[in-house]
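My main concern about presentation is that the manuscript never shows what a single data entry looks like. For the editor and my fellow referees, an illustration may be useful. For illustration, here is how one protein appears when written out as sequence plus structure tokens:

***
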Amino acid sequence: MQNTLGNTIARPQQTPMQVVQSYYQLTKPRIILLLLITTASGMFVAAQGEVNSFLFIVTLVGGAMASGAANTINCLYDRDIDYIMERTRWRPLPSGRVQPRDALIFALVLTALSFTLLATFANVLAAGLAMAGIVFYVLIYTHWLKRHSTQNIVIGGAAGAIPPLVGWAAVTGDLSWAPWLMFIIIFLWTPPHFWALAMMIGDDYASVGVPMLPVIEGDEITAKQILVYSVLLCPVSLLLVYPLGVNGWLYGVSALFLGALLIQKSWILLQTPSDRAVARSLFKYSIFYMMLLSAAMVIDVLPVTHRVTQALLSLVA
């Protein structure tokens, strides 16, 4: 068979388990995990800690399928540049382990299953939002922005901010201010997260002509932008406590502490913007930031947390 550059490569022989693994890798499971965590946080806050177990599982499975479909199409679209970059050359498509036609069929099947599952067992709003996430990620980010704008991940980050909307809609059947604020939190978090990664692997992006901000504007300007978004994110994350009131003091303290650390790491990066180790530290922390912030949202609304808080207050009184 031929790769996307027209060079002939031998299709590797694979066992059935290796074939399954190749398709699994197409979905980018590490990215899906974080998306599911934010979906779960939307569900738990919407239900104030008491989520129906079946609905929870169905929504996460449906969300995982939608994310997997979007990521598979992204891999299909980017297989030409993936072959050039050493970091991505051995992904299933550029390495020849999966054919483009088969990847497209796989993505379409995942999309259909996701919509059917969410529409049947959750509601049409949740299903529609999941489909909107796929369309936005594929058409707006992958097709339009990624190779044409330094603001690609800023605007494209909206796709990654949809999961809490899906989770909230699955529980309530509608959308209030709170899920949209969760959307904004993830939207503001995306630039520090992805630009830190882009600073680490800027040479790869430059080699394939992807106009990531560090490649076009340089590390110092990127670090300044990262700090701006980090500073904005901290107070915005506290709006879930006041004025919306869907989370309490436990989440508030956690959000303040986690946000302060993010600002500190962003400030350190600004002092040494060319230091790849500092960028890597910020990138890794940004992942933990979102995981821990989502966990704080969930823990804060659990009934057991409320009982413990009331018991402590009664002791103090």
User: Anything to note?
Assistant: The chain is about 75% helix and 0% strand.
